[in-house]
Design a protein that fits this description.
By secondary structure, the chain is an alpha/beta fold. It has a single domain, classed as 3-Layer(aba) Sandwich (Rossmann fold). The protein is 37% helix and 13% strand. The chain has nine helices and six strands. The longest helix has 14 residues. The protein is globular.
Length: 228
């Protein structure tokens, strides 16, 4: 069996392979595409099981999830014991939700916020994601414009109601020090980019790529990858 690292990448809510276009990973790379929820009531574990169908059960690999995709990375890794989850600008559990999101979770007020709000207020979206260049802003606007509002409503509800997963947690975490959407926790971050926002996946593609390549190389042969 080849020792080449295998990466499965899960973008953030409503995003796609465009956010990974600057990444340079030394190995086989697969971007997992979002699936339409089977219903408004489909839970994250069930959804993750459908997403995990693209990951061979016996394949050692890295499942890298960005933002909302990080929750799915943890869920997929739970179903694939030879996979390791890596989180980028994401949550390791519901305890890391900021107080405003915990309030929205407790009261259900998030249901009253139209998912298309950021589409109508692109400058607010740019501020929230911490974009710094025209290119980043243009890409963010394209991604938001292409996001299905029904999927966004389902995903936001799932994020806020997510109970987390048991086990040792992610193999590694990367986060921006100026993330306004999901602020970095006080501990547990392996690679903190002090001046980066939530758009870390795009704005700091080169250092993220280096970190992931070094992480995979340090793990040794892919056959040895196991959750511990």
């Amino acid at each position: 069996m080849s020792e080449e690292p295998v990466f499965y990448l899960i973008p953030g809510l409503g995003a796609d392979e465009r956010v990974f276009q600057r990444w340079q990973l030394a190995g086989a790379v697969h971007v997992l595409q979002w699936l339409p929820p089977q219903s408004a009531a489909e839970g994250l574990p069930h959804y993750a099981a459908r997403l995990a169908a693209a990951v061979p059960p016996g394949q050692p690999c890295w499942v890298v999830g960005v933002s909302f995709g990080g929750l799915l990375a943890l869920e997929v890794a739970r179903l694939r014991p030879r996979a390791r989850a890596v989180l980028v600008s994401s949550l390791a559990g519901p305890h890391e939700l900021r107080w405003l999101l915990r309030l929205a979770r407790a009261t259900g007020l998030y249901r009253l916020v139209p998912p298309a709000l950021l589409q109508q207020m692109p400058r607010l979206a740019g501020w929230a994601f911490g974009v710094k260049t025209r290119g980043e802003y243009a890409l963010l606007r394209q991604i938001i414009a292409d996001t299905d509002p029904a999927f966004a409503r389902w995903a936001i509800g799932q994020l806020l109601r997510w109970p987390g997963v048991p086990g040792p947690g992610p193999a590694a975490r990367l986060h921006g020090g100026r993330d306004r959407l999901l602020p970095a926790p006080n501990a547990g971050i392996d690679y903190l980019v002090a001046d980066a926002g939530h758009f870390l996946v795009v704005s700091h593609a080169a250092p993220i790529s280096r970190f992931l390549n070094q992480l995979a190389a340090a793990a040794g042969p892919q056959d040895d990858l196991r959750l511990t």
